[in-house]
Amino acid sequence: MPYWNRSGGADHVFVASHDFGACFHPMEDVAIADGIPEFLKRSILLQTFGVQGTHVCQEVDHVVIPPHVPPEVTFELPEPEKAQRDIFAFFRGKMEVHPKNISGRFYSKKVRTELLQNYGRNRKFYLKRKRYGNYRSEMARSLFCLCPLGWAPWSPRLVESVLLGCIPVIIADNIRLPFPSVLQWSDISLQVAEKDVASLEMVLDHVVATNLTVIQKNLWDPVKRKALVFNRPMQEGDATWQVLRELEILLDRSQRRYAGPWRS
């Protein structure tokens, strides 16, 4: 492996789309205990996992990337501004509540369980636990799409929400989101602290009464939506383009660090 051996992998790039990226395990405590494999520690990782501050699974050069959502989502449904938003707040996914089920007690740090307990009987909240292949049609009808953490802080529903014009409500403390230089996430989403789930309805009602149309207008910006889509072939400004731009910065830094020749 002459190219690998030349720099110990410092000029190699890997995609790690697991829950905790370079740590290769979906459960955080095990991911942290295992850490990043030694052979990857000098390489560059593209990973969907990202949090503010230090974390074992971030102790390597990396770029936070959006989870993959098929580009067709951007045009398979009516334009967001023309969609009928008859669902106030939407979530479809795992929400375990059985007291003997480890997922119910620990999965999502109990955030999803609390969502169901607080709003399961509230008609303004459309919360479903069963799989449904056409769930994106439900998102396209929704004003707010809840994006609580699972095992990891992120999930593809965050990107799907943006593409379908449904305001993402991120409930995942300290999450680090992709491409902040292009996407001002505070303009196109809401972030609610995990401890404030019980106050979620009040928060959403306040948004409706104040700056709902402003956030929706930002969501409908095609530049922002494009930055989250991996097109084939690549288009200027799309997610692949954004990744390459960030990689250029990291690779340049690594080149200076290891002073080795580069191969394309």
Compact overview of the structure:
It is built from eleven helices and eight strands. With 264 residues, it is of the alpha/beta class.
Please render the helix and strand layout as text.
Blueprint: H1 2-7, E1 13-16, H2 28-34, E2 44-47, E3 62-64, E4 87-92, H3 102-106, H4 111-119, E5 125-128, H5 135-140, E6 142-148, H6 157-163, E7 167-171, H7 185-188, E8 190-191, H8 200-209, H9 212-219, H10 222-226, H11 239-258
Question: Would you mind describing this structure in some detail?
Answer:
The strands form 2 sheets. Strands 5-4-6-7-8 form a 5-stranded parallel β-sheet. Strands 1-2-3 form a 3-stranded parallel β-sheet, covered by helices on one side. The protein has 11 helices and 8 strands. The mean pLDDT is 91. The protein folds into 2 domains: 2-68 and 230-258, no CATH class; 71-226, 3-Layer(aba) Sandwich (Rossmann fold), CATH 3.40.50. With 264 residues, the protein is an alpha/beta fold. Helices cover 33% and strands 13% of the residues. β7, α7 (185-188) and β8 (190-191) form a beta-alpha-beta unit. It has helices spanning 2-7, 28-34, 102-106, 111-119, 135-140, 157-163, 185-188, 200-209, 212-219, 222-226, 239-258, and strands at residues 13-16, 44-47, 62-64, 87-92, 125-128, 142-148, 167-171, 190-191.
